[in-house]
Hints:
By secondary structure, this protein is an alpha/beta fold.
Amino acid sequence: MKATKxxxxxxxxxxxxxxxxxxxxxxxxxxxxxxxxxxxxMLKSLREFKEFTGKxxxxxxxxxxxxxxxxxxxxxxxLLLGLGEIGEIAxxxxxxxxxxxxxxxxxxxxxxxxxxxxGMYIPKIKGVDPAAVGENxxxxxxxxxxxxxxxxxxxxxxxxxxxxxxEIFSAVASGKIRNGVTRGCNSALAxxxxxxxxxxxxxxxxxxxxxxxxxxxARELDLQCTILEKSQMAKLGMGGIIAVNQGSTEPPKLxxxxxxxxxxxxxxxxxxxxxxxxxxxxxxxxxxxxMDMKYDMCGGAAVLAAMETIAREKxxxxxxxxxxxxxxxxxxxxxxxxDVITHFGGITSEIENTDAEGRLILADALAYGIxxxxxxxxxxxxTLTGAVIIALGHHYSGxxxxxxxxxxxxxxxxxxxxxxxxxxxxGDMYAKxxxxxxxxxxxxxxxxxxxxxxxxxLHKFVGEVxxxxxxxxxxxxxxxxxxxxxxxxxxxxxRTLIELIRQWESD
Length: 507
């Protein structure tokens, strides 16, 4: 996806002569439309349109050039979007989500009308923070405008090149708005980058592509990049990654990116599952839906995309990203049920199901990352279990953690980002389900509490380090329908990780 250019105009919105100008109105407690002086002259006419009330999700197109307000506005088309009664919004998270939804609606209107250049006027409305409007509406526009057309021919009549420019006008001082817009833009474009990776077919996004992308990011953004090859992983004893890769013709990679600020007191380790295609191995998945298994690398994509924004925003905290990457295929040497493997650090595991492979590659990465980088906190993301969909549907990502503070920080970051998390328990009663008679542990714990027992498997490799596991299998694609979330991969987790590090910076 090509980046949309953001321009801050010094002109008045009244003088904008482009195709499409959007702005916002709200309602007071009595249901009366509250608007900026820019459109006050239109209010009398608007009251005659009972279909436009300024309620949430309410919108109306006006054409200043042929309306009674001719001469006040120069734009060819004006879109008014209702924010509803501000006092009814329960908290700031709901406000942020509403504004992102408005942004998604704007993106849909731009696509429908093939608008390439958009003017956006941020009004002064009591109870509405202009910086929050800038950050979240712009994020919603960019997320909602996302397209993946790399492999698709388009008829000229249907072609929409996308939104090329957003020109921002404001009724208030632009400093805070600029900061907000930059934050929203950074987060949204990172999520779109993760969507791009996930949308690539399995033959065009392999472990090698993960490595190439990371190297390019490192060159451009002053990150340190290390790629561990198969021979190095074997020498280190990473039996989980090597075992999952046994049936593949594609060699695995362990991608390591480091953001090292000059002064840092804490280190955060991010680990993302980079399973570029999951056939299930010998425990073969059913045919229906298997093509979606190219999305099994969404955790790795989220971590990689988030690292790009972290490097751009330059927080004071050190952040290290690990992406263990392979595919899970059925070759002559493929891992078999009943096999026993040895992970990095020496823990042995009995394989009950070769389709429970994500925990095998994550376990090696977690153990290695913790030993090498001595992080203060660890977060991993993975499309790990179908069980989390049974528990939470496609509305929440599962969160499991051994540390309340880290869990609270992630829940807060998820609320701010519109990527909600629901915490599930951990404990010895679940750990008992993955005890093996022939090895230290086994890689499944049966159907009951499948997401939790998968997390308990990972828990064995983090020791006492504060750690959180995000199971994004239900939200990485088919996420709750929203105006700014397309069909296919959602880019889930990217904005949560970015927000987590931003909060770390502000603490």
